[in-house]
Inverse folding.
């Protein structure tokens, strides 16, 4: 058994197609098939269920592939640790960010990181939080920007900043006339929310429960921009994170933003990485850099 064969199995499990997996591994399909069969013989168990036009891992194959992902991640961290001993600011950094944060945070922090670490290759992934967490655990990401709380003893979360929400309401709505609001002002209000899987949806539902508000029935947006446009069109009200309403983001006409009085509803953002990561010290510095850039923006907003 060798690392190469484990890599082939993981690729096959992810792509579920011999041809695509072979292409991803830069080998021929017969070679991939032969190596998988060799691995099955060595382990004495069937790993792959082969059927016309379909490839699936068996239960044993899924278990082996999951263990293989962890082994490959550990090996990559070993290699990365050796590289970082020479210069911790040179190499790749695979960073995940969830969709309701990425387009509003990254323009503020990426130029700063490029200037500070010119030889660092920043590889960004935008996905929902549960997908980022799984990729982080599997070693496919080095770190991820996520909303707290994070419940996983294998992960370290470095708190970066607290981002308050603004109420977004259409012009003419009774709440739009206020300069500031309390959370209790949302009592019995109906809020437009995102679809399942977005952490912002869960955060907004927490505010609804606290304020006595509820979700608008029959509507679930796929993105923050959809919510913004629906509010501007007069469909209803919603909560928008502060970074999503700061310059250079332009608000559509017909939308009014109202600030909450303290204690304002908010979300807490952290940089999260595996406790076993060889990048521990460097990621701590990256987190400080991000917090140092964003915190003044939030205070000014």
């Amino acid at each position: 058994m060798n690392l190469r064969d484990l890599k082939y199995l993981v690729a096959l499990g992810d792509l579920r197609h011999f041809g695509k997996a072979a292409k991803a591994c830069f080998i021929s399909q017969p070679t991939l098939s032969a190596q998988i069969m060799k691995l099955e013989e060595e382990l004495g168990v069937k790993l792959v269920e082969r059927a016309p036009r379909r490839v699936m891992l068996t239960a044993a194959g899924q278990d082996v592939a999951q263990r293989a992902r962890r082994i490959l991640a550990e090996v990559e961290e070993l290699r990365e640790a050796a590289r970082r001993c020479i210069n911790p600011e040179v190499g790749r950094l695979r960073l995940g960010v969830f969709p309701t944060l990425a387009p509003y945070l990254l323009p503020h922090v990426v130029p700063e990181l490029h200037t500070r670490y010119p030889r660092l290759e920043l590889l960004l992934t935008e996905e929902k939080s549960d997908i980022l967490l799984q990729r982080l655990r599997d070693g496919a990401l080095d770190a991820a920007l996520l909303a707290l709380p994070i419940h996983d003893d294998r992960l370290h979360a470095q708190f970066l900043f607290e981002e308050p929400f603004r109420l977004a309401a259409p012009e003419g709505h009774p709440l739009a006339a206020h300069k500031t609001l309390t959370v209790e002002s949302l009592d019995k209000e109906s809020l437009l929310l995102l679809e399942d899987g977005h952490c912002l949806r869960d955060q907004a539902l927490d505010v609804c429960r606290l304020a006595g508000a509820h979700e608008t029935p029959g509507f679930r947006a796929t993105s923050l921009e959809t919510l913004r446009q629906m509010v501007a069109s007069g469909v209803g009200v919603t909560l928008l994170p502060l970074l999503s309403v700061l310059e250079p983001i332009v608000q559509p006409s017909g939308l009014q933003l109202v600030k909450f009085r303290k204690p304002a509803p908010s979300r807490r953002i952290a940089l999260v990485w595996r406790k076993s990561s060889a990048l521990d010290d460097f990621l701590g510095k990256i987190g400080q850099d991000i917090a140092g850039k964003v915190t003044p923006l939030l205070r000014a907003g």
